[in-house]
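Materials and Methods. Structural model of Protein SMG9. The 352-residue sequence of Protein SMG9 from Hypothenemus hampei was retrieved and submitted for structure prediction as follows.
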Amino acid sequence: MKKALKLIDDGVVNTEFIQDYLQENIDFIVVGVVGAQGVGKSTILNLLSENKITESFKRSLFKSYSDSSMDFETIKIFTQKHDESQVEHSNIFKIESQEDMENCMNATQGIDIYVTSNRVIFLDCQPFLSVAVLDELIESENKRTNLINDFVSLENSGEIQGLQYTAFLMSVCHILLVVQDWFFDSNIVRFIQTAEMLKPTISNPEDEYCDHFPHLIMIQNRAQMADFTPKQYKVMQKVYDNLFKKSKLQFHTNLGLGSGRVINTLNPENCGNPVNLFLIPDVSDESENYIYRGHPPLEELVKKLKANLFGAIENPLTHVQLTEKTWLLYCNRVWETVKKSPFFVEYAKLMP
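The predicted structure was written out as tokens:
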């Protein structure tokens, strides 16, 4: 698979096109990502799905990095303009462009899927609490009919759709990444807690119910130098620890930076009880190697995040062992259950 494909588009799970890329293999892991608009969800997945992060890859992925490196490598770039190594990297997941923002559009619509060679399935979800999503639902009556129940009011349809997608990912993923680009947005936390509350229990043909909850990792994208200090990281951990204390999502499984295995100073002694909080730095300063950044390079942090994801304990999604192909069929059943669930309609009635 060279590019991400559509898993859910216009409220329909596309099983036909994806079956060819899946195997009868039980040793796989599913990683989903959610977040608000423009926080870097697709960028994070591009970093995780890339085998090696090169300079050309970073230039194509990060506009700010490309601009900052121009002063240092202007001559080199223009003299090697036609060199094959300078050809723009083709991203697996489409990232938001300036044109998308100007036209009030999202780079990701629905849920995209990408399967790596080492059998990791990445799911990229459209942003929740997005004006662009609501605008699209208002313009397209067919899409609104396919996705949202008739009893949900138009102004609340965008948020309900986001809750359905998030509840779906909580049911079919081993790990769920929640991406933010600042600390902290109370609306994001409320949204995740609401999706967990509304997530329906999935039954199998034997009428056995399975209530699966994935590992939850909070990703702080575009983190600044101060965020990597033990004092600030301790504050961030304590806030998230209190907010998700009663959650059934697996938030205390040592998949963040607070374990001390990635950055020595960010350990339980300095930062308190570790939660799954991971920081990805702002790359605008990456080219200035002579400046102290206060954190390891981007490449090293992404490598550590990969190791945490791929080494996480995979709790079974169902009572029956799933292969990649049967997981896709399970996705179809989960999505139908989510769409027909009365919980979302009842919740919409309580919304202002």
